[in-house]
Amino acid sequence: MAKQYWLMKSEPYVFSIDDLEREGSTCWEGVRNYKARNNMQAMKVGDEVLYYHSNAKPPGVVGIARVCKEAYPDHFAFDKKSKYFDEKSDPDKPRWYMVDIEFVSKVENVEEPLGLADIKADPKLSDMELVRYGRLSVQSVKKSEFDYVKKLAGL
Predict the structure, then answer these.
(1) Where are the extended beta strands (E) located within 74-124?
(2) Are 81 and 50 within 8 A, CB to CB?
(3) What b/e string do you get for 75-103 counting C-beta neighbours within 10 Å, with b at 16 or more?
(4) Residue-by-residue DSSP string for 72-126
(5) Could you say which DSSP state residue 148 is in?
(6) Span 34-43, mean pLDDT?
(7) Cα–Cα distance, 38 to 133 (Å, whole number)
(8) Where are the beta strands (DSSP E) in 59-123?
(9) CA atoms of 137 and 150, how far apart (whole Å)
């Protein structure tokens, strides 16, 4: 199967691109949206990810990550002490999944990412899921969009 491309959002105060760089890799837990979960279940090792800071000023693409472990049950859904606990999720039939991603690169100045306003203003990116379905935390990205965003961001 051909490599796929994605965009994953994280608030920088929760887990920033700097955190990912420092740790090297992380599990992407806590996704509680079915479309985003389905996207993660479609991910394969080696797929590339635009790392996006949401709830930032400005929000935008701050780096590149790579999928290093395919979807597996999000065990936080079964942990009553976790903020991601879901009483309807069953370990024998998990509802929620996560993937692991690893750091690849980041923009030189994370405080000045390739911002959402710039992405929305660019006609070449008008069909991006980020523009059309802004709130989704894990989105698919076309290879042409990925390559173009990477170039614009200086990655």
Answers:
(1) 97-106, 114-115
(2) no
(3) bbbbeeeeebebeebeeeebebbbbbbbb
(4) EE-GGGG-TTSTT--TT-BTTB-S-EEEEEEEEEE-S-TTS-EEHHHHHH-GGGT
(5) H
(6) 95
(7) 15
(8) 60-73, 97-106, 114-115
(9) 19
pLDDT value at position 24?
97
Domains of the chain (ranges plus CATH)?
A: 5-153 (3.10.590.10)
Integer Rg of the chain from CA = 15
pLDDT digit string (tens) for 58-101?
899 999 999 999 999 998 878 778 777 777 787 888 889 999 99
Whole-angstrom distance, CA of residue 111 vs CA of residue 43:
29
Q: How many residues in total does the chain contain?
A: 155
Residue 140 amino acid letter: S
Q: Is 63 exposed, middle or buried (0-12, 13-18, 19+ CB in 10 A)?
A: buried
Q: What is the DSSP letter of 93?
A: B
Residue for token pair 């700097």: 18
C-alpha–C-alpha distance, residues 63 and 117, integer Å: 17
- Gap between the terminal Cα atoms of the chain: 25
123 prior amide bond cis, ω within 30: no
Yes or no: say if 73 and 97 are a contact pair by the CB < 8 Å rule.
Answer: yes
